[in-house]
Amino acid sequence: MTAHDYDLIVIGSGPGGQKAAIAAAKLGKRVAVVDKHDMIGGVCVNTGTIPSKTLREAVLYLTGMNQRELYGASYRVKHDITIVDLLARTQHVIGREVEVVRAQLLRNHVELVDGHARFVDPHTVAVEGRARTTISADKIVIATGTRPARPNAVDFDEARVLDSDEILQLETIPASMVVVGAGVIGIEYASMFAALGCRVTVVEQRERMLEFCDPEIVESLKFHLRDLAVTFRFGEKVVDVAVNEDATVTTLASGKRIPAEAVMYSAGRQGMTEALDLEKAGLQADRRGRLEVGPHFQTSVEHIYAVGDVIGFPALAATSMDQGRLAAYHAFGEPAHELGALQPIGIYTIPEISYVGATEAELTTSSVPYETGTARYRELARGQIAGDSYGMLKLLVSTTDRKILGVHVFGTGATDLVHIGQAVMGCGGTVDYLVNAIFNYPTLSEAYKVAALDATNKIRALDRFST
Ligand SMILES: Cc1cc2nc3c(=O)[nH]c(=O)nc-3n(C[C@H](O)[C@H](O)[C@H](O)COP(=O)(O)OP(=O)(O)OC[C@H]3O[C@@H](n4cnc5c(N)ncnc54)[C@H](O)[C@@H]3O)c2cc1C
């Protein structure tokens, strides 16, 4: 018999925490989730994934961006788009999503404890919220996520100089903006503001952006963003941001000075562990606030697990969810597979990018022979109907066993389309499956067949030469 209040306490109600809690509850365990009442659903629902993706949807709809190919460059659904237009949709979706999360937890008899948790000892946490309480459990999952990292030298004023969490608090759509950091979050927001007609300058200290993606696709994205008046400053470092009532001036180490109405910093994220009193649990975070875990998401203290962004890469909602589920299964001895090796990456820029599996660079470095097969949306009937002439899907196919090694998609529906390739790859399928499959017509999915035919034609040419 346990003397603890719960079988499991989960700290943080983001995707990782939610799924850990629900998985444990489904196993018949007594579970509590601790989070502040205005953060139910985590960064994901309140300040990160959901608001940014809803904002993107609102931008795409109101600007009429995706329809301009068909109706002309001046096409707009609304002319003077205001921040209120954009945020109305965002707030609506956040409200609904919070309800979904709450209902799911309640339905599974997971207790929601309001407040901020800190360790008292390795099995006990004190919670400070609207009330104070102390609760204990056999197992604990830390799913506290991250917050934007803020360089000390920069004065964030919540009005003109903001981090990516504060961007949703802008009172007007700025006419010009400097985005510092060309990581996924920075470049997603840069493309949204550019689509709204804001003149965006992206400053990135590295020489490239999104280096983990296919370079051909990143080039296409840069071309598109430049077309929307985005200026890139690669290999440049910000040394100062000056602010007055109307504007900002960002000074770069090279001496360039960039005036803009607003500056958004997107310079990485810091694990939310500093206020957890980790030492009382026998734990320690690294200098970026992250926790190290073993293969089953156990920290150095066996009964304490950590999942989601607080453990670092890949820091995505979908991965965090599965980490949470697997941590709970392990904690309560439920057999489970390991985290799926094929994890898709989705980047919701305008246009969007998604991929799964290897990149050309990785295959080349590891001397794996492959051929590419490409389909351009403009050659697909659905591409023409949708007015997407720039989209593309690229398959990387092994020339030895014809298996699909990677799928890279750019354009409308990329983040959904990638899963077809993921399923084929996950089942060990070859390019021949895609050649022989019948796809609905007209669809963007048909890109798979076109790309597969392209790849097999190239492989055939090679085979003919060899025999
Ligand atoms: C702008 C932005 C856009 C993003 N877009 C995408 C995307 O398109 N796709 C995608 O897959 N991912 C995206 N992400 C990443 C995604 O949001 C995260 O991977 C995901 O939210 C991580 O989940 P998590 O379980 O770690 O918890 P989080 O969602 O990070 O939530 C952590 C929770 O823990 C709570 N907490 C922290 N400390 C304590 C404490 N001491 N006591 C109690 N509670 C505490 C916090 O209040 C918070 O609610 C985006 C992130 C950002 C910032």
Helices and strands, with pairings:
Elements: E1 6-11, H1 15-26, E2 31-35, H2 42-46, H3 49-63, H4 68-71, H5 83-107, E3 111-114, E4 116-121, E5 124-128, E6 132-142, E7 146-148, E8 161-163, E9 176-180, H6 184-195, E10 199-204, H7 215-227, E11 231-234, E12 238-243, E13 248-252, E14 257-260, E15 262-265, E16 269-271, E17 304-306, H8 317-331, E18 345-347, E19 353-357, H9 360-365, E20 370-376, H10 381-386, E21 392-398, E22 404-410, H11 414-426, H12 431-436, H13 447-466
Parallel strand pairs: 1-2, 1-6, 2-3, 6-17, 8-15, 9-10, 9-15, 10-11
Antiparallel strand pairs: 4-5, 5-6, 7-16, 12-13, 13-14, 18-19, 19-22, 20-21, 21-22
Helix pairs in contact: 1-8, 3-5, 3-6
Bound molecules: flavin-adenine dinucleotide.
Characterization of this structure:
- 33% of the residues lie in helices and 24% in strands.
- The model has no long low-confidence stretch (mean pLDDT 95).
- It is of the alpha/beta class and 467 residues long.
- Strands 1, 2, 3, 4, 5, 6 and 17 form a seven-stranded mixed sheet that branches.
- The longest helix has 25 residues, at 83-107.
- The protein has three domains: 6-148 and 270-331, 3-Layer(bba) Sandwich (FAD/NAD(P)-binding domain); 161-267, FAD/NAD(P)-binding domain, CATH 3.50.50.60; 351-466, FAD/NAD-linked reductase, C-terminal dimerisation domain (Enolase-like, domain 1).
- It contains 13 helices and 22 strands.
- It is globular.
- α3 runs antiparallel to α5 and α3 (49-63) runs parallel beside α6.
- The protein has helices at 15-26, 42-46, 49-63, 68-71, 83-107, 184-195, 215-227, 317-331, 360-365, 381-386, 414-426, 431-436, 447-466; strands at residues 6-11, 31-35, 111-114, 116-121, 124-128, 132-142, 146-148, 161-163, 176-180, 199-204, 231-234, 238-243, 248-252, 257-260, 262-265, 269-271, 304-306, 345-347, 353-357, 370-376, 392-398, 404-410.
- The structure holds flavin-adenine dinucleotide.
- Flavin-adenine dinucleotide binds next to α1, β2, α2, α3 and β4.
